[in-house]
Structures are given as structure tokens and as C-alpha cells.
């Protein structure tokens, strides 16, 4: 628990962080990478290049300060961070490095306003958060039966081109041993060496098939890049260089976006774009383990040709007795009754039957923010809404 002496300084930091948070985190990453360039192998340098990682960390620091007495609000965020850290191999010895450079950044940006008591308070607050994360990560490493920075060597046994920019890769152990089990909705990290960067880069990809097999399948969208965002180094590398017979280094399964499959409570799966991948895993698992479950499946895409694993969705319809599917397309052709044109409108679907169910959302950040807000306006309780975030997360819901 934060000391009584430190607490007023952390609370007083809230408006300061609102104004200067991004400047602080930008300086933090710059100096940390200058002192420890090896850490670039752990961080997503694409997110560094487009600024989203700096913004995300600024949001996280601000949310931590704003909710210093509201640990229940922070718990889901901390749990997600723990899974992400374990998936890339974060170790306890990394935390003092981060703490040192974060305090240096606060001192540099705030100047004379960064008094000794303020810096001492933030050192205490960071130490408390670091201890929480380290302990939780140790528990997750232990429950996964893995060591930090331990990677599985898996062979690609199948590659399928699903759309113009999306391909799936099916992986199995090179020694035919059993793979670590996973839950539908979880992800694995893939580590590859990018020659043009001179770095190893790690990315997370949702497992896109049922957990009932001794294989992992990931579905990867090739991020081409444009004037607004850089290209995806790892996704392009996988599309260009990975073939049947290739070997990949992957993490143990991680992630807390694990929809409830076994009970009889209805479930709603809401996705857009490549956010469909964990939902396919969930659909396939329900079809295998609980085909009587009531399922609402809603997906948004440019058009039908851009929907990955459409054949498996069609198959799920024949296996899951109470499955309702609706697609929202920018370019709807009206080929089937389930197609609708335009933005997703949840008011058509949150009927009394589904109003109290669990809602799972995955897709671009703005899409997830919009759907969460729509659900809240329709009377859905916030504790019944879960989101899977592929990149740095917006924490707007924690910033009061």
C-alpha cells in the first residue's frame, strides 16, 4: 500500500501527467534504448515508430495515478500486461532499468517541479507496481511450466492464403511432443530476426483454431503500411519467408481474453477485420464442446471477400444449434439475409435474450471503443464486456 506521505504527491501528479505524460514517456523510451539497446529486441519498434507505444505508456502511468486507490479498476489492465510480459519473456531484472529511466524522464521534463518528495513518491509507487507485476508474472510462468524467455521451436505444416493480405499458418512440434494447452481466445508470440532492422522482433497472434488439436494455428494479416502507419515488419516477414517446413520460435500460449464456453449462458462475439481470429477459435471450440450454447456472432469488414475463415463460420452454423450470425460490410452485395451495409448497429441484436450475456469484442481500438459505448448505452453492465487488444491499449475508460 502506498504510504500516507507519498499519496498526496501521486494524486497531485494527475493533472501534470495529463499535460506532460506523452513528453515524459517519449523521453523515457529514448534514453532507455540509448542505454540498453538490447531492449529493442523486446519492444515493438513499429509501435515506437508510430508513437502508439509512447501514448499507451503515458495513458497507463496516468491511469495508475488517477486510480491509485482503486485497485479493482486497474486489475484487468494489470492482468493483460502480465500476460503480454510473459509472452515476450520479461524478467524481474528488467524492472529496475525501467524504473530508473522513468524517474529520469519525470525529472527531466518537469525540471524544478520534480522535487525530491515528488520523485520519492513516484519511486515508491513504481516499486509497488513492479512488485505486483513481478509476482504475478512469476505465478504465470509457473502455471505455464516455463522459464522466462523460453521459446518453443515449431514447424509449419500448413499455410493457407485466406484473403489478399491474410494467411494462416498451422504449427506443430518438431519432435512430435505434446504442445502446451491453450484456451480459446488466447495468443502466442512469434519471434523473428528482421535483417533490415538488425533486431529480433516479437509479435502476438491469436490462436485461430479449437484447442482440441496438438497444433497451433495463427492467422496473420500482412500490414502493408501507408502514409499513416509503418509497414508490419513481422507480418510481412511471415508472409514472404515462411513456408511449409519452416521453423518458427513461439511462446507458450498467453492471454486473458478467454470467453466462457462450457456453461449455458448466451455469449456474444463481436469483431472487425482481423479481430475475427480469436472468435474463430471460440466458435470452433463451442462447436466441439458445447453445441447447444446460444451464440451471437457479429463481424464487420469491407466486404465478404475480406472475411477470413468464412468456410469455418458456415460449418459452425451446421454444428451450433443456436448460432446467429450477421455481417456488416462497407460494400454489401446482399447475397445473403445475414449481410447488412454500413456501420455495426448493436441495437438490432441486444435483445432481452442477450442483454445479460457476456460480450466479447475484438478489432481496431476505435471499433472496440464504439461497441463498448453502444453496449453501455443499451444497458449492458460494464463487467459483462471484455475486449482483446492487439496493440497498445487506450485506457480512456480509466481516466476520470
How would you concisely characterize the structure shown here?
The protein is built from 11 helices and 12 strands. With 400 residues, it is an alpha/beta fold.
Can you describe this structure?
The protein has 400 residues and is an alpha/beta fold. It folds into three domains: 7-143, Orthogonal Bundle (Globin-like), CATH 1.10.490; 152-250, Translation factors (Elongation Factor Tu (Ef-tu), domain 3); 267-398, 3-Layer(aba) Sandwich (Rossmann fold). 41% of the residues lie in helices and 20% in strands. The chain has eleven helices and twelve strands. The strands form two sheets. A six-stranded antiparallel β-sheet has the order 4-3-6-1-2-5, with helices on both faces. A six-stranded parallel β-sheet has the order 10-9-8-7-11-12, with helices on both faces. A hairpin with a 4-residue loop joins β1 and β2. α1 (7-35) crosses α6. The longest helix has 29 residues, at 7-35. It is globular, with a radius of gyration of 22 Å.
Report how far the terminal alpha carbons are from each other: 22 Å
Strand content: 15-25%
How many domains, as an integer?
3
Largest sheet: 6 strands, antiparallel
Helix and strand pattern: HHHHHHEEEEEHEEHEHEEHEHE
CATH class of the largest domain: Mainly Alpha
- Per the CATH scheme, the topology name of the largest domain is Globin-like
CATH-defined architecture of the largest domain: Orthogonal Bundle
